[in-house]
Each structure stands twice: as C-alpha cells, then as structure tokens.
Amino acid sequence: xxxxxxxxxxxxxxxPRVLPTPLVSAVRISSDLAVPVYLQKTYWWAxxxxxGVRFFERQWLVNCILWGNFARLRDAALSEMxxxxxxxxxxxxxxxxxxxxxxxxxxxxxxxxxxxxxxxVQLNNLHRKLGGNRANVYLHHQDSTHxxxxxxxxxxxxxxxxxxxQPAGVREQTVAEAIRVVRxxxxxxxxxxxxxxxxxxxxxxxxxxxxxxxPFAMDTWDNEISAWIPPEFNIQNxxxxxxxxxxxxxxxxxxxx
Length: 257
Known about the structure:
By secondary structure, this protein is α/β, with parallel strands linked by helices. It contains ten helices and seven strands. The protein has one domain: Vaccinia Virus protein VP39 (Rossmann fold, 3-Layer(aba) Sandwich).
C-alpha cells in the first residue's frame, strides 16, 4: 500500500537501499515515511488501529470476507510461483490470514522473500505471525508506489488484494512499480476483485458492501488490471483467470525478455 505523495513519481530507476538483515527481531521503521492520507481516512479501522489488526487477523474471518474463497485464491497465487519457490520474491503489502506463512514454507533453500508495507503496525503484526526467526525472510517499511529496489531485482512479485483499496493514481503507480522491479521473463501476479457476471447473485450483494466499505474497489470491476500498465514496459504475456462467478481474478503479467 500506498504513499499518496508518490502518485506522480516516475518509474525511473532508483538507488536501492541496503537490504535489512533477515527477520530476527524488531522491524526497522522509517520515521520519514508517513501513512498515506487515504489509508488513514478510509481504512484506519481495518489496517491501522491495533484493535482492528487483532480482530481481522483470524483465518476464519478473512475466509468469510471472501465468501469462503480465501484458500482457493491463496493457492492460485502460490501455484504461479512454483514448488519450491526459487530466486527473489516480493510480496507487496501484508495480508491477513495464512498467505505469507504458506509462502514462507515454499521458499527454497537459498531463495529470499521480501515483504513491504507502509503501515508499521502491519509489519509488526506479520513479524509476530511468522514467529520471529525465519531465515531468508525480509520485512521492509516501504510504500508500494515508490519501492526502493532496483529494476528487475525480483523473479516474481505478488500483489494480493491490494489494488482495490487504492485510489486510481496510487493504484496505477503500484502496478508500475510491481512490474518495474520484476526481471525480464519474470511475473507480476495480481489477485483481487473482478466484475462478476450479471447472473452471479453475489454481484448485487457486493455492490452496496463495496461502495460503503471499499470506495475504490469498483474500479477493479470496471477496468482490467492490464489497463494500468504504463506503456513504456515491454510485456510478453497477460493471462487472467476468474473465480466464483467472476467476482475474483488472478491476473499474471509476464515481462518480456
């Protein structure tokens, strides 16, 4: 997620910071990185307040929120990265539930998993959830719209149910950054909401829910994720799969070699 002030930032290469040590103790928090205004105003109750974090960090609850589809969508994302998962992997934003623990368990010896989030409370929650001492797992206090990694640093990037929570300009920059840091031939994997078919009864249940609680989410119904790819990137392939009558999607963008 998320830095509103970086909406207009270019996709030019940036100088990467020195990578932090593996996850063994406290998460390093940058004092000059503020939580975006839209996140504070819209999602404070779900992602920023400690009580909200404690409440939503329940496997059964995140599964209910996704109408029983969490495991299916989680496994669809993980299957894209192989078993075991090799190379450098980036997860953009922390996720409630067991997605990240499952991802950690698939990391091959010598491979590395990096996870970024703009909210310190989310990073600290994930630190606790992973149990502290995890070799080759790195947490970064970073903004999805202004990643400090160099171009092509990662073999694959996963963005799991983040885009629907971001305003248009922020979302476009998140997509741009996710693709920028993927190596040629690597994949950016996006799992999120999708416009369901008119025959799907959940279409009519979800419209008032999303408009009330997720004010940016309808953009994922009305637009393809591929529409947010900047024209300067050379894309080899875009593959989309939908789930649960079209309410959810997995879009995989492969960068050209």
